[in-house]
Amino acid sequence: MRPCSALRPGRGPGRGGNPVELGPRKNVFDDPPWGLYVPGRSSYQVAALAESELALSYAPWRKSGGAVVVRPDRVSVHERGRPGFRREVRDIMVDNVDADSLLVGETVNRPGEWSSYPPHKHDTVIPDLESRLEEVYYYKADPPQGFGFQRIYTDDRSLDEALTVENDDLTLLPRGYHPVAAAPGYKLYYFWALAGPERLMRPHNDPLHEWTLEA
Asked: What is the pTM of this model?
């Protein structure tokens, strides 16, 4: 993503029509992300200063609040997993921004490695164990001819799909476990956005595969 400007009248960034510049970002693999949270019932304009690519996520809005610019230094970066499922997770709008319904971030798989692993789900409200959130993944591959695999399945296998994912693909995750694998030689990136009745990140691992955390 190259530089762009976001304009929004009223509260917060862009007050009085003054532009807020996001970027530059060379690419999603090597540079950290930028974000802009705009609350509901607000108007804004986006003007590209160069060729740009933006990810726009929407969810129901329930409470008041101002717009928030998320610069790279506000993004929480985590190295997670073990050999075989190591990945970098970047929280763009999780604990650092009260984004009402939205939870937003990015994950980068190393070549040949898995993520969202052990397989986890978040489709049922179980106090202190699991929250209910729908999710989408939007993919990039490096080099761009690369690919990966996404499995989506439920405990009873009423849903069990294995999908090939390539550059610029998007998957919908309404329910079920959803692990991801990158093909050897290719980094695999995905932008993720979640929303549900309660803004709470509480995934539940598949008990059949949770042992791999200690393997």
From this structure: 0.89
